[in-house]
Automatic annotation (TrEMBL):
Keywords on record: Aminoacyl-tRNA synthetase, ATP-binding, Cytoplasm, Ligase, Nucleotide-binding, Protein biosynthesis
Keyword Lipid metabolism included in the entry's annotation: no
Annotated InterPro entries: aa-tRNA-synth_I_CS, aa-tRNA-synth_Ic, Rossmann-like_a/b/a_fold, Trp-tRNA-ligase, Trp-tRNA-ligase_bac-type, Trp-tRNA_synthetase
Protein name: Tryptophan--tRNA ligase
Organism of provenance: Micromonospora globispora
Major site of localization recorded for this protein: cytoplasm
Motif ('KMSKS' region): 197-201
Record-listed L-tryptophan binding positions: 139
GO terms of biological process kind: tryptophanyl-tRNA aminoacylation
UniProt similarity note: Belongs to the class-I aminoacyl-tRNA synthetase family.
Catalytic activity: tRNA(Trp) + L-tryptophan + ATP = L-tryptophyl-tRNA(Trp) + AMP + diphosphate + H(+)
Length: 352
């Protein structure tokens, strides 16, 4: 490989939001200039919680929107390989082989699995969801990924990948790099309701593709300090979602500090703080909107990127699988059986 490789991506369940940006996209934008970058459209992972016929019918549309969001955020199309997970069946073969390198109790200790099941309204954990980190290991290692920029939720999954890579290399010889987890500066972003992390399913998210009016409306409805009933009452800055967003997205640091000082002293109302946050967020999102408009105007480009990327990735995955099977001895096992069968056929065909 000419350059170290990065593997990252998302499930095609809808448009990406600010939580995705701080959790991993910001890192992807910085890293994709240094790494050979693969971006997975993880529709098989989507099936662990969203697997109705209607969900699946939305994959192609959601995939296009997701890739457009990623490009709009700053990823250059000539430095990225986008691919559709379900279009590469060899990943499933690798997943099957990896399942034997990790135990059920180990997977049950991954904290996000129960959270994902709860968020999806599932009383019991499906087999596929329990094995989510194993399939993720196949995703990362099938292209020999060496860097994985992820949010807080997926950190434990990447650790499972590291364990599987080490286990495989120990048993069968060094085939895989042990990937490095690259954590975000802001691991999670609380939702606009202040009750949980930003999430599409909870309806508490600001999308990267939201227009200015939508952003302002969502900001003006944000949760703040519940104990503050009037503007002249001193308020809490710590734990206040509005100020958490100011800290991450408002580039005018002097303004942020001045607002915090006035808020703590009871000299500014929530409306003014939110108004300035809306301005700051729209200032942050404007370049993303402009890039998105350019990619949307080039009809068919995103589809072409996905097709080209999927075809290229499948070649890489097939190459990896051949090496994996050879290292494990699976190739030689069948070769030996076939040779004996050929000798048998020749002997049977020879006259006595």
């Amino acid at each position: 490989m000419s350059a170290p490789r990065m593997l990252t991506g998302d499930r095609p369940t809808g448009r990406l939001h600010l939580g995705h940006y701080v959790g991993s996209i910001a890192n992807r934008v910085k890293l994709h200039q240094r790494y050979e970058s693969f971006f997975i459209i993880a529709d098989l992972h989507m099936l662990t919680t969203k697997n109705t016929r209607e969900d699946i019918e939305q994959v192609s549309r959601n995939a296009r929107e997701m890739v457009t969001d990623i490009l709009a955020a700053g990823i250059e199309p000539d430095r990225a390989t986008f691919y559709l997970q379900s279009a590469i069946p060899e990943v499933g073969d690798l997943n099957t082989l990896f399942q034997n390198l990790v135990t059920v109790p180990r997977l049950e200790r991954v904290p996000s699995i129960k959270e994902m099941a709860r968020d999806a309204g599932k009383e019991e954990i499906p087999y596929g969801l329990l094995g989510y980190p194993v399939l993720q290991a196949a995703d990362i290692l099938c292209v020999r990924g060496q860097a994985v920029p992820v949010g807080k939720d997926n950190a434990a999954h990447v650790e499972v990948t590291r364990e599987i890579a080490r286990r495989f290399n120990h048993l069968y010889g060094k085939v895989f790099p042990v990937p490095e987890l690259i954590a975000a500066e802001t691991p999670t972003l609380v939702g606009t309701d202040g009750q949980a992390k930003m999430s599409k399913s909870r309806g508490n998210a600001i999308a990267l593709s939201d227009d200015a009016a939508t952003v302002r409306r969502k900001v003006m409805g944000m949760y703040t300090d519940p104990n503050r009933v009037r503007a002249d009452v001193p308020g809490m800055v710590e734990g206040n979602p509005v100020f958490a967003y100011h800290d991450v997205f408002n580039s005018d640091r002097a303004q942020v500090e001045e607002l915090k000082e006035r808020y703590r002293a009871g000299r500014v109302g929530d409306v003014e703080v939110k108004e300035k946050l809306a301005v700051a967020l729209n200032r942050f999102l404007d370049p993303i909107r402009e890039r998105r408009a350019r990619f949307e105007a080039d009809s068919g480009l995103v589809d072409q990127l996905i097709v080209e990327g999927t075809e290229r990735t499948r070649v890489e995955v097939r190459r990896t699988l051949v090496e994996v099977r050879r290292a494990m001895g699976l190739t030689s096992a069948y070769t030996q059986v076939r040779r004996r069968a050929e000798r048998y056929r020749k002997a049977a065909a020879t006259p006595a």
